[in-house]
Every structure is written in C-alpha cells, then in structure tokens.
Amino acid sequence: MARDDAIIFSDLIGKLGELRIECPKCGRSGRYMLARLIAQYGRDEKLFRWTDEITADCPRKLAPSDSDPCGAILPDLPKIV
Question: Comparing 26 with 7, which gets the higher pLDDT?
C-alpha cells in the first residue's frame, strides 16, 4: 500500500496509547486502543481510511448535501504530529 504522506498507525506507536475520535456537531465520540487497531488493521493502515470506516454511518456523511459535512476529528493528533 502506498503511503502518500498519510499518517499511518505505526507513526503513533510510542506517542499515543489510544485514539480518541469526536464530532462537535453531533456529539458522537469514542476511544480506541492503538494496539487493538494495529492488530485489526495492520501497522501500515492509513488513519483516514480508518476514520472513514468509523464514521461511515454518520448522518451528515449519508446526507446528499455537502453544506453540513461530518465534523469528526482526532483531537489528540495535532499534539503529536
């Protein structure tokens, strides 16, 4: 898999033990253990592919309009990359 300068799970080893995902628009949130994500998806999985999968059922993503997109973020990510 080409990396394309994307952040991958192995970039986070030793920096984060868990990934938090939050959406300030709808209030959804969750915590995911990095080791478990690596076991499930592999060390080289791109973060944006995982976030797309996690937010696939977001009503804003499923809506036909782009005027109010999903607002899911990984709040801890800017602190470490």
Answer: 7
